[in-house]
Amino acid sequence: MGDQEVKLFGLWASPFSKRVEIALKIKGIDYQHVDEDLSNKSPELLKYNPVHKKLPVLLHNGKPICESLVILEYIEETWKSGPSILPKDPYAKAMARFWAKFIDDKCIAAMWSVRGSSEGQEKAVEVLKEHLKTLENELEGKKFFGGDEIGLVDITANVIALWLGVLLDLSGIELLTKEKFPRLCQWIDDYLDNSVIKDTLPAREVYREFLSNVLNSSS
Ligand SMILES: N[C@@H](CCC(=O)N[C@@H](CS)C(=O)NCC(=O)O)C(=O)O
Q1: 38 Cβ inside 6 Å of ligand 1
Q2: How far is it, in rounded angstroms, from Cα 74 to Cα 71?
Q3: CATH assignment of 6-78?
Q4: pLDDT tens, residue by residue, 190-202
């Protein structure tokens, strides 16, 4: 394994990029991280992801893999070391894919729409609230979305664990509270307390400053 080339074109502040790092660390895979600048993407990133021109891209022995959820499944199938991040049972696996897609297609879309103070913001918050309720229900009787251990859905939901709270905070929206979402808040605490997660996600204050600058420069 040590002689393999595993290179991640990512960004420290990207929740998508962090998904890949978490999976590689859970599996105990050594990798090289190339931190990209989104305002000046590297020629390698553009060459390896000509379709979307986005990070993360995982380069494994010269072969590029794009799209974080695709990369997570590739990691699971390629490296048998470490814990599995997807269940073996076909139905349970399909459900994990379903919820990961729900987070990407619904939650993340709703999350970025709550920014700013446009007329649509109130509606966007309502939509986000509905989606968070759905996730709250999904956590009934479980520590993690994956059960007792962190799995594909938890890794996909890292955006809820850190990025969403900071965004809501900076936007002055009180939504993700223990009163409204007790299971989801407990999940956030448990998830952020995991040693791999702690070691991988940026510190809240550091990310807060970064996002605050991004929001100020785009408004
Ligand atoms: N669906 C993609 C989303 C990745 C994504 O949005 N990456 C952002 C950084 S967080 C990016 O590279 N944006 C560059 C751009 O849009 O030009 C995934 O899951 O990998």
Answers
A1: yes
A2: 5
A3: 3.40.30.10
A4: 999 999 999 999 9
